[in-house]
Amino acid sequence: MRVFLCDHCGHPVFFENVACLHCGSALAFLPDRLALCAIEPVGAEAPGLWQPCGGAPADEPRARYRLCHNHAALQACNFAVNASDVHTLCVSCRLTRLLPDLSVPANHERWYRIEVAKRRLYYTLARLGLVSPSVSSHTLEGPVFEFLADQPGAAPVLTGHSAGVITLNVAEADDDERARRRLALHEPYRTLLGHLRHESGHYYWDRLVLADGHVPAFRDLFGDESADYAQALEAHYARGQPAQWQLQHVSAYATAHPWEDWAETWAHYLHMVDLLETAASYGVKLALPGASPGVPEGVDNPFEAGLSDFDQLVAQWIPVTLLLNSLNRSLGQNDAYPFALSTGALDKLRFVHDLIQAARIRA
Ligand SMILES: [Zn+2]
Ligand SMILES: [Zn+2]
Ligand SMILES: [Zn+2]
Predict the structure, then answer these.
(1) Which ligand is nearest to the CA of 22?
(2) Of the ligands numbered here, which is closest to the C-alpha atom of 90?
(3) What is the rounded CA–CA span in Å between residue 165 and residue 161?
(4) If you measure from the C-alpha of residue 108 to the centroid of ligand 2, how many angstroms do you get, rounded to a whole number?
(5) How far is the CA of 76 from the centre of ligand 3 (A)?
(6) How many angstroms does the Cα of residue 329 sit away from the middle of ligand 1?
(7) N or C, which end of the chain is more exposed by having fewer CB within 10 Å?
(8) Burial class (CB in 10 A: 0-12, 13-18, 19+), 151
C-alpha cells in the first residue's frame, strides 16, 4: 500500500489512523479516492457531514461524507461513506454480515484487528480493479464475511470460503493463538491479512477461473480440482509436508489440493503488489539483478505501471524481499518474507497475474 501524507501538515500518516499524530487533523479513508485524507466538519448547515480539507478546485463543490457507522458507534473503522450513499456502513464494513458477540470484552479488539486487515484487503482488491468503490450504493460486491467465535459445546468455527462467504474464526486475531496454530501446522507465515487474502482467492477462483472459462488452463498448471476436497485436506494433514514442495508451490499447504494451491498463489500475488506499492511510494531504489552494477533502479508502483509486465514485477520483487528480510534481521527479527519462489511457483503466479490483468482490461 502506498504511504499517505496528511493534507494539512504533510506528515506521513498510516492507513489505520483516525487523526494525524503531528497536527491532530481528523483523517478518514475516502473509498472513491482510495486515499486517506484530512477531513473537517462541513459546519452547522450540515451536521454529521465532513469534507476533505484540500484537493478540490475552489469553483467545484467539495464532496461530502459521513463517517462509517462503525467509526461513530464503535471506533472500529476509519472509512468514510459518501453523503449520498443509503448505507450507514462503509464499503468494507457492509460486507461483514456476522460479528462475534461484542459484549464479550476481548471480541471487540479481535473484531477490530480483523476489520483492519479486511480494509487492507479491500484496498488491494480495489487497486486491482476487482471491486469498484464507485459501484452503485445498492450493490454488494466482493466476498461477504462472517467473523465468528467458538461456542462451548458447538463444533469449532472453521476458517474458509463457501459460495461467496468467507468465514474467519476470531481466535486468529489473538497473537498467542495464531502463533500456536502456526507452529502446530509448521507454517512460516500466518497473519490475519494472509488469511483474508487466501480466502479471497477461493472467491475469485469462482469468478476468474470457473465463470471465465479458464478451468482447462488452470488444470494444466495446478492439477485437477475435481479431486475430493475433504479427503485431500485430511490426507494432507495426515502425511505432513511433502518433500520438494518448493519446486511447484508457493507454500507446503498449497500441495493439499489444487484449490488451495490457487488460493495460496493468489494470496502471494496480493502480497507482491502491495509490498511493491509500499516500496515504490517510499522511493526505494535498488540494484536489481541484471541492471548495470552501481546504477540502482527505482521500484515501480505496480498499479501505476499498469501491472503489464509480470517479469518486471518479479525482477523488482526479489531484491525488495531481500532488503525486507535484511532489515528484519538487523533488528533480530525473523524474516518477514520466509519464502523463495521456484520457476514452478512463478508460472502459477503469472497465471494469476494474467487473469487479473484480463479482468482489469474488461472492467
Ligand atoms: Zn497533519
Ligand atoms: Zn466501515
Ligand atoms: Zn483455502
Answers:
(1) 1
(2) 2
(3) 6
(4) 14
(5) 27
(6) 32
(7) C
(8) exposed
226's grid cell: 475435481
Q: Report pLDDT for 61.
A: 74
Hey, is 98 helix, strand or coil?
strand
How many residues appear in the chain? 363
Going through 134-208 in order, the beta strands assigned E by DSSP cover 144-148, 160-162, 165-169
pLDDT in tens, 54-104: 766 666 678 999 999 999 889 999 999 999 999 999 999 999 999 999 999
Asked if pLDDT for residue 308 goes beyond 80, the answer is: no
Cα dihedral across residues 162, 166, 170, 174: positive or negative: positive
User: Which phi-psi region, left, alpha or beta, contains residue 100 (left: φ > 0; alpha: ψ -120 to 50)?
Assistant: beta
Contact in structure between 295 and 256 (CB atoms under 8 Å) = no
Task: Specify the residue for cell string 517479469.
Answer: 311
Q: At what angle do helices 343-362 and 310-330 cross, to 10 degrees?
A: 120
Domain locations along the chain? 1-88, 91-189, 220-362
Name the pTM for this structure: 0.94
Q: How confident is the model at residue 134 (pLDDT cuts 50, 70, 90)?
A: low
